[in-house]
Amino acid sequence: MLSSGYLILSDGSVFSGQVPYQQNNLLKGEVVFNTGMTGYVESLTDPSYAGQILVFTYPLIGNYGVLSEQTWESDKIHVAGVVMSELCQSWSHPKSIKSLADWLAEQNIPFMTGVDTRALTKHLRVQGTMRGMITQQRELRVDLAQSKKILGASFIPKVLIQKPLIYNKQYEKSIILVDCGLKLSILRSLMKLPYRIKRVPHDYNYSKEPYDGVVISNGPGDPMDYKATIRVLRVALRKNKPIFGICLGSQIMALAAGAQTYKLLFGHRGHNQPCKLEISNPKSRVSDKCFITSQNHGYAINEATLPKDWRVTFRNLNDNSIEGIEHKTKPFFSVQFHPEACPGPTDTIWLFKKFHKLL
């Protein structure tokens, strides 16, 4: 049973809809939007959304139910809440195991439906992502000042592993996979390569251990909050071993190299983001290749601060922001988008092969 509910933003804007009548009266978080037409299961289980209220721009969500855990990006839903235009009650898919509504209820995830998500998204695109709360009291006003406690930093320990895990034990060459809030599809992609994988917590010091390469994963929050990750990576960058950063991992690599990051107005979240390859041949520095990519991030690299021995490899065609960097002479590279996709196109899956060749 649903009752009237309201999404109140920090700028005073109010969007009405319906919420389960028994739902907790107050939920706060950073309100962000995702433009994907499918992939809501993968998005909801993506640890990068920890602490955020996720708005789906596609008008009908839940029409194919919830697929098995083999499609999940972690072992649970990480979003703080979900906002939709319409929550489909009659789902249909041969591999689905339950409805989206039942899944959200099982995991105690608040949601709001019947919202004009088009108007809400247009508002966030102009004003930028901001704090918000879902409540059943329209006149309720709670302090929604920007706070890292809500925007992601406090969620870092909750989405990470606490001790190292080993995969592909049969191989001799090894990769250190730094888990900052890992999407499991990244692990699945790496496990297809002939390497032993040691998955470690974000603050784990691997710099004195034997390894052949390093991968820095995606994750939630401000990259500046991952101080231990940045500190260890600075040491790793002094060596000549391949390093591959993905999403948050790209921002962390830039920070470790000496660059700076900044918060985007409304971020890039969806699997229809066009990116141009800036460099196809380092000598000619000319490329006309464009890739459609899957993305989920709210921060970007400040190009003006990028050291001279690094260069931009990919650029977002919507806002010209940096989507990839690499060192000019050493085997270090990173991308802001998700080459493993899930959801989204697999146009850039070849980047895992690039990392393999460097190893």
UniProtKB/TrEMBL annotation:
Q: Which Pfam families match?
A: CPSase_sm_chain, GATase
Reaction(s) this enzyme catalyzes, per UniProt: hydrogencarbonate + L-glutamine + 2 ATP + H2O = carbamoyl phosphate + L-glutamate + 2 ADP + phosphate + 2 H(+); L-glutamine + H2O = L-glutamate + NH4(+)
Q: Name it.
A: Carbamoyl phosphate synthase small chain
Q: Which Gene3D superfamilies match?
A: 3.40.50.880, Carbamoyl-phosphate synthase small subunit, N-terminal domain
Q: Which UniProt keywords apply?
A: Amino-acid biosynthesis, Arginine biosynthesis, ATP-binding, Glutamine amidotransferase, Ligase, Nucleotide-binding, Pyrimidine biosynthesis
Pathway involvement? Amino-acid biosynthesis; L-arginine biosynthesis; carbamoyl phosphate from bicarbonate: step 1/1; Pyrimidine metabolism; UMP biosynthesis via de novo pathway; (S)-dihydroorotate from bicarbonate: step 1/3
Provenance organism: Candidatus Nomurabacteria bacterium RIFCSPHIGHO2_02_FULL_42_24
Q: Could you tell me the EC number(s) of this protein?
A: 6.3.5.5
Q: How does it assemble?
A: Composed of two chains; the small (or glutamine) chain promotes the hydrolysis of glutamine to ammonia, which is used by the large (or ammonia) chain to synthesize carbamoyl phosphate. Tetramer of heterodimers (alpha,beta)4.
Q: State the Gene Ontology terms under molecular function.
A: ATP binding; carbamoyl-phosphate synthase (glutamine-hydrolyzing) activity; glutaminase activity
Q: Which InterPro entries would you find in this protein's record? A: Anth_synth/Amidotransfase, CarbamoylP_synth_ssu, CarbamoylP_synth_ssu_N, CarbP_synth_ssu_N_sf, Class_I_gatase-like, CPSase_GATase1, GATASE
Q: Which PROSITE patterns match?
A: GATASE_TYPE_1
Q: Which PANTHER family match?
A: CARBAMOYL-PHOSPHATE SYNTHASE SMALL CHAIN, MULTIFUNCTIONAL TRYPTOPHAN BIOSYNTHESIS PROTEIN-RELATED
Q: Which gene encodes it?
A: carA
Q: Where does L-glutamine bind?
A: S48, G219, G221, L248, Q251, N296, G298, Y299
| Family under the similarity heading | Belongs to the CarA family.
The record lists the lineage as: Bacteria, Candidatus Nomuraibacteriota
Q: Which GO terms describe its biological process?
A: 'de novo' pyrimidine nucleobase biosynthetic process; 'de novo' UMP biosynthetic process; glutamine metabolic process; L-arginine biosynthetic process
Residue span, Carbamoyl-phosphate synthase small subunit N-terminal domain: 3-135
Stated role? Small subunit of the glutamine-dependent carbamoyl phosphate synthetase (CPSase). CPSase catalyzes the formation of carbamoyl phosphate from the ammonia moiety of glutamine, carbonate, and phosphate donated by ATP, constituting the first step of 2 biosynthetic pathways, one leading to arginine and/or urea and the other to pyrimidine nucleotides. The small subunit (glutamine amidotransferase) binds and cleaves glutamine to supply the large subunit with the substrate ammonia.
What positions constitute the catalytic site?
Answer: C247, H338, E340
**Region described as CPSase:** 1-171
**Broad class of enzyme this protein falls into:** ligase
